[in-house]
Amino acid sequence: MMIDNQGESSSDGGKRKREKRRRDVKRQSSLQKSGVLWNRTRHASVLRKTCESLFASCEPVSIELFEQHENEEREGAGRGDTGKVPVYVMLPLDTVWRQEVGGVYNPVLKTPKALNECLQRLKAAGVTGVMVDVWWGMVEADAPGKYNFDAYLELLRMAALNGLKVQAVMSFHAAGGNVGDNVNIPLPDWVLQVGEEQPDIFYTDASGCRNPECLSLGCDNEAVLRGRTPVEAYRDFVKAFLSATEGYLGWVVSEVTVGLGPAGEMRYPSYPEGDGRWRFPGIGEFQCYDAYMLEDLKEKAKEVGHPEWGHGGPHDSGNYTKCPWETGFFHPQSGSYKTEYGDFFLQWYSDLLIDHGDRVLASVTEVVREQCPPEMAVECLLGDGSKKVRQLEEVKVGIKLAGVHWWYKSGSHAGELTAGYYNTRQRNGYRSIMKMLKRHNAVANFTAVEMRDCEQPEYAKCSPQGLLAQLQEDAVAFGIPLSGENALQRYDKFALDQIEHASYGEETIENCPQLKRLTFLRMGQSMFDNWDAFESFIARMNRRVPDDAAPINNVAV
Asked: Which pTM was predicted?
């Protein structure tokens, strides 16, 4: 037997090491359990205070009691909610606005009384919840790390009292440059000041035009924001939101949707309509000409042995308003997108976008796991003496994917390529996105569910239905919940039927709906002017016979 210098056998030393490891594991497990217990106690305390400010009383109850209560309610109703697609309604972009008081601008609810009346009507119609943009340019407008969520807390209070859930969109982009934008909400002033000093923090096209709608993914890990990187700034913003709204998490706030680009979508700003550079159905332009992205392209080109590929995007890819056949890169027969160079560039361009989503989601989901409540339920005594048991559910993290459906039936799918989706007739570009989302257990939200192929101009080779079908198939393959939004505000029978079909028609797996949630764009006067059509649509989505519609008065929102 070997003896070490201290006279101890090596086998004895090994036993001591194993015992030490076991003690360390037990200690770590004990710390984790105490941390979970502390979190549960803290969340219960915050939840109690929040609910007591809303209802007559509030008491924590066991999950078993909650499940029993739910079963009794379902039996009493004679059916369960299996297969139901919950409907959320998008609130106006300017639901929260900046109001000047004594020279100081603070975020406020624009029309709180009218908003509350609208929420009551949505609830009565059968709507599950609402979506609201939590604007970076509103909340952290004046200085880095200085947040004001007061207006959003007032909205959450309204939603809670009306029995509605809230999908909160962390809007790290500006409003005013996209289809349907009727307001102008810029990025925070201090961010724009940084942009004046360092314009390469913004996406840039081949002509050198900067786009201040959102920050370039090229500077994700650069400390350009007063000592913080953009990813750190996004994480801090989400953490501050979750901390401010802790008492509403899991029972009012159901999802945190993370903005990852223009219009909050994970894409490049390749088709900027607001400033007139792009018009439908133009192919758009690659957005890779800021200094950070060009430096990355240069390095990647060297790595593959072709430094000549690292000077910028394709020289023959046309401009914003061109059609594929008017370019060399996207040409249907001889397009260089099919060459070795084309594959290199498109792979690099789309990989950067997916890596951007991966970085931001990794940072945000960690914060959500830390700050969102553990499984618990509460019993609230309502003002009329009735009791309501509410379960705190997992707060989902989601992203938005753009419905770039023009040129989908062409070989190159040019509109998708410039937006960052390397999806062609020969290549599936969305599976890698779903794979990334799977790592973070995230939800995908897809726009344009109301559109039909037959409504689009034939020469533009559009297929919103084909694109949606592809995303549904890819989402199912990776187990990703897929939700939907309509891109345009429509109340005609064709659009509403198409949304219902996308939600319930031709179910693919065990009769489950293809969409996990629908978000309807958007609450406003147009919705109330078409209330009968909208209320009937909600009734169909809820799979019940419409009740007699109550008269709806006009409401200014």
From this structure: 0.88
